[in-house]
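wait is this the right file?? whatever heres the structure
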């Protein structure tokens, strides 16, 4: 059982923190809720006390004999602020201590996670961006907000990530996830591309995106800023990831190359179609009594090889390139050949087919390392494969 402090800012998303609190308590953790005074305008003190089973106060003058403004932070294994308003981020970045929550943030020597939620204009304001960079430079994990519906009719970045996704990040931190990707930007592709035959049909593959999303989730928990290029994935956005949605291989290429221009790491976990129809039809192909016309195919660009070629030509980013290879036969031999041919630093090879890899919650893989020994990852959750990849990436970045 861990001691978790849940700070709650004065934002409309405060009601979602009730679900986050439930995740912590149902996992056996002791949670002390520390709201700001104005946060109680959204969710009242009795609710927090009932759900946590702990006293709730906003004031440093309550229970002075217990020195709460010092003890709560000192005894915490994790402090998570959700929602973290622009006001809280500013106060934390500048070391202000006007209430119990900001005092707790100053005294905490455990990992601190901020889950911001605010209007888009506030999130994108230079002052907020500077405060976020300051907090990250000090070791705090600031999860990028989700994109979606805000208060009123507004839509954009600034929505609180799904509480279950925030909890996944926090759980990994409580289990001792290293903070070795702090200050790094990683680009991850996930899912499978679809190449249009006509407006109804497409050429695709079986990739679910689960492994790519696990890579995004674990990278965020290790402190990275994550750009996730998702091709046809029906999964909740991982907390802390900026998600760029694409459909085809050409769209995925454009998004990955744009995001990788200043990225430290690119991980090509998506299953990219090797070919696409040369002449996709503008209207549905009707079934006739005769045999259908053949579909002429053309090659799609090899995005992984293109990244390798750019680096060989002197482009400094990305510093580390990771590829994936799903094989059915001669897995290691084919993987080793691909590692050398593509010019990547790491290649994650796994066997597919027969219920393996695609669409399953677990995976087994071999991480091939350019100039090094292969790393075997036994069958287990896809997060374990992701962590094995990030271990190798972090070693190269250091």
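ok assuming it is, sequence goes like this
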């Amino acid at each position: 059982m861990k001691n978790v402090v849940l700070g709650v800012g004065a934002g409309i998303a405060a009601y979602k923190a009730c679900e986050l609190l439930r995740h912590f308590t149902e996992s056996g953790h002791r949670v002390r809720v520390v709201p700001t005074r104005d946060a109680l305008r959204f969710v009242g003190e009795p609710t927090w006390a009932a759900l946590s089973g702990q006293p709730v106060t906003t004031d440093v003058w309550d229970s002075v004999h217990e020195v709460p403004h010092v003890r709560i932070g000192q005894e915490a294994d994790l402090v998570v602020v959700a929602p973290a308003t622009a006001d809280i981020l500013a106060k934390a970045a500048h070391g202000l201590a006007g209430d119990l929550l900001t005092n707790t943030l100053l005294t905490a020597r455990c990992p601190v996670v901020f889950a911001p939620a605010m209007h888009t204009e506030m999130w994108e304001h230079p002052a907020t961006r500077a405060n976020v960079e300051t907090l990250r430079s000090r070791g705090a994990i600031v999860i990028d907000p989700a994109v979606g519906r805000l208060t009123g009719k507004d839509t954009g970045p600034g929505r609180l990530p799904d509480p279950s996704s925030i909890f996944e990040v926090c759980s990994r931190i409580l289990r001792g996830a290293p903070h070795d990707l702090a200050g790094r930007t990683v680009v991850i592709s996930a899912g499978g591309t679809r190449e249009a035959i006509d407006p109804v049909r497409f050429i695709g593959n079986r990739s679910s995106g689960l492994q790519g999303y696990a890579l995004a989730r674990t990278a965020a928990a290790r402190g990275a800023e994550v750009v996730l290029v998702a091709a046809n994935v029906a999964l909740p956005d991982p907390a802390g990831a900026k998600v760029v949605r694409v459909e085809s291989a050409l769209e995925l290429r454009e998004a990955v190359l744009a995001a990788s221009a200043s990225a430290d790491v690119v991980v090509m976990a998506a299953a990219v179609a090797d070919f696409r129809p040369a002449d996709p039809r503008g209207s549905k192909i009707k079934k006739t009594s005769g045999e259908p016309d053949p579909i002429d195919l053309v090659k799609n660009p090899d995005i992984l090889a293109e990244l390798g070629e750019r680096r060989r030509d002197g482009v400094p980013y990305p510093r580390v390139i990771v590829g994936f290879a799903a094989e059915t036969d001669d897995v290691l031999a084919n993987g080793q050949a691909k590692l050398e041919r593509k010019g990547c630093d790491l290649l994650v090879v796994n066997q597919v087919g027969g219920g393996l890899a695609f669409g399953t919650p677990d995976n087994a893989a071999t991480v091939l390392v350019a100039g090094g020994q292969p790393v075997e990852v036994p069958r287990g959750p896809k997060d374990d494969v992701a962590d094995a990849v990030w271990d190798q990436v972090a070693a190269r970045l250091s």
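The two ends are 33 Å apart (CA to CA). so i think its the right one actually
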